[in-house]
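Protocol step 4 of 5: obtain the predicted structure for the target chain.
Materials: sequence only (see below). No template structures provided, no constraints applied. The aim of this step is simply to have a reference model before the mutagenesis design in step 5. Sequence pasted as it appears in the construct record:
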Amino acid sequence: MKVWTLCHLDPPPTESSALQLEARDTHSRYRRPLWLLPLLVLTIIGTAGAWLWAQQRGPQPQPRIQWSENEVEVILSPGESFSKELSFTSTVDVDDIVIERVPELAPFLTIQPKSFSHVPAGQPQSVTVEYSIPPGATLGDYEGTIHVRLGNRTLPETLKIVMNLWHRLAHPTLPISIAIPPEWNSEVHDDVMLFSSPSTTVRRAAPDEFHVPPDMRLEVIPNLERLNIDEFALQFTDGWFLTYGRSEPLLISGLPAFLLSDMDSEIGRAPALALFVAVADDTVILLAATGHAVDVTRETLDKFSGVIQSIILSD
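Step 4 output (structure tokens):
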């Protein structure tokens, strides 16, 4: 027996129904992303607002750095260390800055702290420069800078660093030492030390030169009356230094000292420069730039100042 199953068959689509389906699909495609429209509007408004705000503020000021000193110059010898306190200020607030030294100075000094997370405008920030000279360092003059880096940009206001690595000499009888430039010559005669520049050294060795004095002389003088250093200096050799044009009390390595200069006098006396240092209650050293003012070269004047700075008490 045959069983017939009845099923419903849709009629074939007419042209009108096909057009309706296509229109419905097209409408659905364009309707789906409409939820993105508010986000797009907000993005456009935010971008435009940020642009208008930036235009109203105008260009932002660039930070400028001012250091507490324009230049730092030190005189050290191999094996010595020294620290220097400095500070800097910024004209505007800055964040995440780094303090760096140029590679030429890297073997000799470090900086603490090396970075700052925030620097308020106009507020000084302390920095410590620590010098440590290796024992085998080559003598001579070294120059470089310390600068501030902001991101990948180095700010132009730098701190100049000058290091003079000199040869240190111990006094033969006293617990003191001094440093002289590496190219200078030294002579020791009992408790007297003589120092000569290269040109003076050549002249002193020339057979046709007569009595060429060294550029500097250091000698030991007893202070039996235990006078104050200024009184001792002004009474020394019957008041020879009383008429000197300039005098200045100093403190050298913690020791009282008195500096006298006749460099500005028209005639002048010799020595043109004299430094008296009380190394003990009854002992004074005299460091002198020999000769009259006209005999003292610019080099000797600069080096005399450096030798003064280098005087230290030995351990």
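Step 4 remarks: Residues 1-9 have pLDDT under 50 and may be disordered. The helical segments are 15-31, 37-57, 198-205, 229-239, 298-310.
Proceed to step 5.
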